[in-house]
Design brief:
The structure is a homodimer of 363-residue chains.
Chain A (H helix, E strand, L loop, with lengths): L1 E5 L6 E5 L3 H10 L6 E6 L1 H17 L3 E6 L9 H13 L6 E7 L1 H13 L6 E5 L2 H7 L4 E6 L2 E8 L4 E4 L9 H18 L1 H9 L1 H5 L3 H21 L14 H10 L7 H19 L4 H13 L11 H8 L12 E6 L2 E5 L4 H11 L4
Parallel strand pairs in A: 2-9, 3-4, 3-5, 5-6, 6-9
Antiparallel strand pairs in A: 1-2, 7-8, 10-11
Helix pairs in contact in A: 1-2, 3-4, 4-5, 5-6, 5-9, 6-7, 6-9, 6-11, 10-11, 10-13, 11-12, 11-14, 13-14
């Protein structure tokens, strides 16, 4: 088991990473100073895979634990689902000494984290992410929230987990498309912060695709280290943390334009990062070679859904509703080189559209 | 104008108190480093009194300001109303550099504060409280939230305002019952923290009832000082801040038992403080004289609605759903003397019921 520490004043926490960790979780938790009354939040599919064993293990370790099942999918990442959790917390007698445990992917973690952030003005929560995206990204950093209409993550809080527990073995049960979607976020870390890691990812792609356990553990650890370092330095996204949004302004625009249908979050980010690479070549001096290498690496991860039928104007229009905007300006993360970012808010819509047109024909 | 500073690491803010301050607010705000895009949240009645002038003043001072009207009353302190605010923020093009201004009583401030806490994971908000309760209590300290079903403030966040602006002249338009309800919270500050202030309040009751401007200003300032001191030392209610809940465990139980109908929050707290005084005499050694003085002072503030038809068992049962509970124990604030509190979690239900029975016959 490896431990990555996230240092935040008064709210530091550990990320534990290890194959088979899920089976040890009840015992691990018992050895920590933590709530004895737990509410395990997951969706039916994940609960079917891991929930029963986990509930029994926790009960055997002396915890009182109730399950809260929420529907799966981005379309259920709403205040309605959060209210359902509040209702079950109230009827289960939750108080401020209770804790939530989020078992599942990013959607489950974001929803459960927001419920924890806002129930009784904040109770603790623990993340047990079971997808690539959740393990390398959404479970770390304390961003919680839900969508409002078509505006993604428009409602939310910063609320840090008290523990993150990652078992790479849970990835073995992931559908291929979901696994692949997560890899785009993995490559993002290399692009924004670590050219050496980016090289290693490209060299290891075959073993990664085979979900080789030691390789996945190393991959997750490096991603968590970068995310932990960036979020510890800038918890509330005033500056440094924004680099994590490479590809996200475009990506959110696409997700919004297709109403979150037919394109996964990771796939949208993949398109977004390729658009950002093109824009970077024009605007920050990213070399042609680096641009092509970034685009090629992303394409080699696997096939992407066709998006050429989505009008570019609709994507650019949706980008203007992005919550990273400040003073009515669209903020995009660009690359000055592989591993080096540049944040810009001076890109006119026509250049955003031009960059998007470069990638929307790709598959 | 008097200024009370609330010191919190990284989130300190000023409370400005002065007669006629509302008229100066736009100019005051212009001189501070603050958002230029504002959303003024109030209810129709308050907006009718002050909203138009304020909107014009803000526009004249160079702010872009939109109004968001929400329905009045505790029954509308719900996620539905918060969602209505989100909707208007989105359609008004709000971004993270926008700010909310909450103009009104405690309900408006709590709802608008929670919307600010959770929109885009937190945007700034300014409190302009216009009722006694809001001026001496709810606008200071960063507690925001809404009710969930019958569970009061069950959903919420700690989110500090960036400025609180109090004009005692707004109290002149307050209905008598609402004004009086606020005074119970004022007397609470004396009871929990400042025996000299308690004496002064009793001696000044006639001028207070007449809403004499200099007296009200002094009263508000002292209450804000106490609240600021307590919340600065303990932002998240782990310990000291709980003393502010004198009368509130009983009071919330009553409000819940009558489904928030027929009894104002302040009146419920009045009954709760009298019950706490009786319980204190039995449990903490509060002298008979101090107990009687506390009860008598509260009764002299004005008539209270009859509650003898509300079964004691229902109030005690509702107290068990209070969010101040920890590890399934009901927490109550008692008085060891006037100005000195003692927090207890070892009071059996039968004693809570007995104390309640002592006061429920009073009018």
């Amino acid at each position: 088991m490896k431990t990555v520490q996230v240092s935040l004043p008064g709210r530091s926490y550990d990320i534990l990473i290890g194959s088979g960790l899920l089976a040890d979780f009840p015992k691990l938790l018992r050895d920590r100073k933590t709530a004895r009354r737990l509410f395990l939040v997951s969706n039916p599919a994940v609960h079917e895979l891991y929930g029963g064993t986990l509930m029994r293990g926790l009960a055997d370790s002396g915890f009182r634990v109730s399950e809260i099942l929420i529907p799966d999918g981005e379309s259920h990442k709403t205040l309605r689902t959060v209210e359902q959790i509040y209702g079950q917390l109230v009827s289960g007698g939750a108080d401020r000494s209770s804790a939530l445990v989020a078992l599942g992917g990013g959607v489950t973690g974001d929803i459960a984290g927001f419920a924890a952030a806002t129930f009784m003005r904040g109770i603790p929560y623990i993340q047990i992410p079971t997808t690539v995206v959740a393990q390398v990204d959404s479970s770390v950093g304390g961003k919680t929230g839900v969508n409002h209409g078509l505006a993604k993550n428009m409602v939310g809080s910063f609320w840090q987990p008290s523990l993150v527990c990652i078992d790479p073995e849970t990835l073995l049960s992931l559908p291929q498309r979901e696994f692949q979607s997560g890899l785009y976020e993995v490559f993002k870390y290399g692009l924004i912060r670590d050219a050496g890691f980016f090289d290693w990812l490209n060299a290891s792609l075959e073993e990664i695709q085979a979900r080789n356990a030691p390789v996945m553990q190393r991959l997750i650890r490096r991603c968590c280290q970068i995310k932990a370092e960036v979020t510890a330095r800038d918890e509330r996204e005033s500056d440094l943390r924004r680099i994590l949004n490479l590809g996200h302004t475009f990506g959110h625009g696409l997700e919004s334009a297709v109403r979150f249908e037919g394109v996964t979050h990771g796939e949208a980010i993949a398109y977004g990062m390729m658009a950002a690479a093109h824009l970077s070549h024009w605007r920050t001096g990213l070399s042609r070679e680096s641009r092509d290498r970034a685009v090629q690496s992303i394409r080699e991860i696997g096939p992407l859904p066709a998006i050429d039928a989505v009008p570019t104007s609709r994507v650019v229009e949706a980008m203007k509703r992005d919550k990273k905007r400040r003073n009515q300006r669209t903020v995009v993360v660009l690359l000055a080189a592989i591993g080096i970012t540049e944040i810009r808010d001076d890109i006119p819509d026509r250049d955003l559209a031009r960059a998007w047109d470069q990638v929307k024909q790709l598959k």
